[in-house]
Amino acid sequence: MSTEIKAPVFPESVAEGTVATWHKQPGEACSRDELIVDIETDKVVLEVVAPADGVIEEILKGEGDTVESGEVVGKFKEGATGESKPAAKDEGKKEEGKKEEAAETSSETTAGSSGEAILSPAARKLAEENNIKPEAVEGTGKDGRVTKEDVQNHIDAGKSSGTTSAPSAKPAGDMPQVDVSSGERPEKRVPMTRLRASIAKRLVNAQQTAAMLTTFNEVNMGPVMELRKQYKESFEKRHGVKLGFMSFFTKAATEALKRFPAVNASIDGNDMVYHGYQDIGIAVSSDRGLVVPVLRDTDALGLAGIEKKIVEYGTKAKEGKLGIEEMTGGTFTITNGGIFGSLISTPILNPPQTAILGMHKIQERPMAVNGKVEIQPMMYLALSYDHRMIDGKEAVQFLVAIKEMLEDPARILLDV
């Protein structure tokens, strides 16, 4: 029986999407609930799975094509049996191993003799973007197939060990070879992804529509670092998660937002909307770009609850599995450029929010303490805010409140 493969129903805020990757090709066998195609929107990547055991009968929307909510992208034949391995048109995917049957050479790519790994389309794309040799990645999929997760794990392992894979000498996509003669200037033109295009549009809109201003301060991170050092082992043992700095900043920001409601507000046309709750977005960097999942009701969360949600969101962002509902509705945002080494910056507003807090690198500096010069671990803080909604006095006092709570963490617990 033939059935239609449809794009998921998009939320009202999403008009259309793009076919990102077909994981299965026409004639290729699929198991029930097996991933067959990714649909990328300007917020998340939505996965479409096989409705039953069968084969892909026809692809109506190729990779890169625009699709609307619920639109048919292909056809699926339920109960049919097909190729268990990708056909020759699967763009260079070859079977691993050196001893293969000669009967497979007619319509499929013979690969056993080449010893090259079998990569899914998504895995191949990720490998090419990061100059990873396919044969260097250990496959965990069926028949030794290298999955996207295998490639990502290989990249993460290289980062953690401080090494990187040597660039492949073969052209990656339409990119010229790495080994080029002196004087040559290779270029590669890549279409902007929907997420990147959405980020660009929102940032430009924020700068053009908001009266954005940034105020700075600095905080002595010594007290928080000492508290963290003292309790990090017992904290992790009890809660199963590490105690980081972000939870302290989130709790400090939550208390400050309660004291200064305008910073926790948003602008809707000519209306100013004051929120009686604190939903704080945490900016997370992913392979697809910057995403901002939201921690709901942070006033009701403890440090452990915040850290667990941050780990959960970080994992989902890495795997491209954040849901749209997890990235909408925030009232305030925190971004941490310090993890990349940023010493000071001016974060851009996340509309329709009226303020965003920027954290930065902890840097030891000589500071005057009680008439003496001491070396202290200092961090610059930046608060960008919409001057239409927030006066300079409120912005400065808000940032000072966060500074005071971080330099005396007991204030966070005592709400003083």
UniProtKB/TrEMBL annotation:
Its cofactor is (R)-lipoate. Residues 2-77 form the Lipoyl-binding domain. Its EC number is 2.3.1.61. Binds 1 lipoyl cofactor covalently. It is an enzyme of class 2 (transferase). Pathway: Amino-acid degradation; L-lysine degradation via saccharopine pathway; glutaryl-CoA from L-lysine: step 6/6. GO terms for molecular function: dihydrolipoyllysine-residue succinyltransferase activity. GO terms for cellular component: cytosol; oxoglutarate dehydrogenase complex. Keywords: Acyltransferase, Lipoyl, Transferase, Tricarboxylic acid cycle. This is Dihydrolipoyllysine-residue succinyltransferase component of 2-oxoglutarate dehydrogenase complex. The gene is odhB.
